Amino acid sequence: KQEVTQIPAALSVPEGENLVLNCSFTDSAIYNLQWFRQDPGKGLTSLLLIQSSQREQTSGRLNASLDKSSGRSTLYIAASQPGDSATYLCATPTYNTDKLIFGTGTRLQVFP
Amino acid sequence: KAGVTQTPRYLIKTRGQQVTLSCSPISGHRSVSWYQQTPGQGLQFLFEYFSETQRNKGNFPGRFSGRQFSNSRSEMNVSTLELGDSALYLCASSLAASLPNEQFFGPGTRLTVL
């Protein structure tokens, strides 16, 4: 049974810092891994999707990497801004389904 | 292209009542999934529908049910509401018939059970 964990649970950094969020999964036989952002009380915004055949994906200041052999994905945020403050979630689908298994999230606060 | 829409955005009900939530997927998307999000349990999968058929179901009691219409819009129903059903209910849609697919989420319906 796939389990997904995220460390740290919360992170507070000053504006401008580069930071790394971690996502670990127990079953390395994944199809893809998706990173989401969630603002308080709101829905999920898809940030990046990495297919199992890819090592990384980039969108603007965001870069996500995937290492299946070690069961890890990282989300790198460059030059963080207060607008990046949100909860970041990673998720991966169970075998041959659209059912996503989510991590517990990292709550990020970027202060001016 | 419009995103996933969910109605209503907020609901307040009392124990024992029933509730119906609605989700309209992105145009052209045929799969709709539902998730429950609570502070204690995080995001948990409820069920998924594709072409009006339930393709997957999570570990929730039978009080939780859903359906999908021919235009891919989906509804979920919770009967005999309990306090523990208070949560943010999120709907996600995806495009293709082959699995798995990138998921796109709606803004959610906040259900409060008093």
Task: Give the topology, please.
The complex is a heterodimer of chains A (about 110) and B (about 110).
Chain A: E1 4-7, E2 10-14, E3 19-25, E4 32-38, E5 44-51, E6 56-59, E7 62-67, E8 72-77, E9 86-93, E10 100-102, E11 106-111
Parallel strand pairs in A: 2-11
Antiparallel strand pairs in A: 1-3, 3-8, 4-5, 4-9, 6-7, 7-8, 9-10, 9-11
Chain B: E1 5-7, E2 10-13, E3 19-24, E4 31-38, E5 42-50, E6 53-57, E7 64-68, E8 74-78, E9 87-94, E10 104-105, E11 109-113
Parallel strand pairs in B: 2-11
Antiparallel strand pairs in B: 1-3, 3-8, 4-5, 4-9, 5-6, 7-8, 9-10, 9-11
Structure description:
With 112 residues, chain A is mainly β. Chain A is built from no helices and 11 strands. In chain A, strands 2, 4, 5, 9, 10 and 11 form a 6-stranded mixed beta sheet that branches. In chain A, a hairpin with a 5-residue loop joins strand 4 and strand 5. Chain A is globular, with a radius of gyration of 13 Å. Chain A starts with a strand and ends with a strand. Chain B is mainly beta. In chain B, strands 2, 4, 5, 6, 9, 10 and 11 form a 7-stranded mixed beta sheet that branches. The radius of gyration of chain B is 13 Å and the shape is globular. The model of chain B has no long low-confidence stretch (mean pLDDT 93). The interface between A and B is medium-sized, with 23 and 27 residues.
What distance lies between the first and last C-alpha atoms of chain A, to the nearest angstrom? Answer: 41 Å
Q: H/E element string of chain A?
A: EEEEEEEEEEE
> Got a strand count of chain A?
11
Low-confidence stretches of chain B: none
Strand-residue proportion of chain A: over 45%
Strand proportion of chain B, as a percent range, falls in: over 45%
Through-space gap between termini of chain B: 37 Å
Main β-sheet description of chain B: 7 strands, mixed
Helical stretch tally of chain A: 0
Oligomer: heterodimer
* Chain-averaged pLDDT of chain A: 94
- Helical fraction of chain B: under 10%
Q: Summarize model confidence as the mean pLDDT of chain B.
A: 93
**Largest β-sheet summary of chain A:** 6 strands, mixed
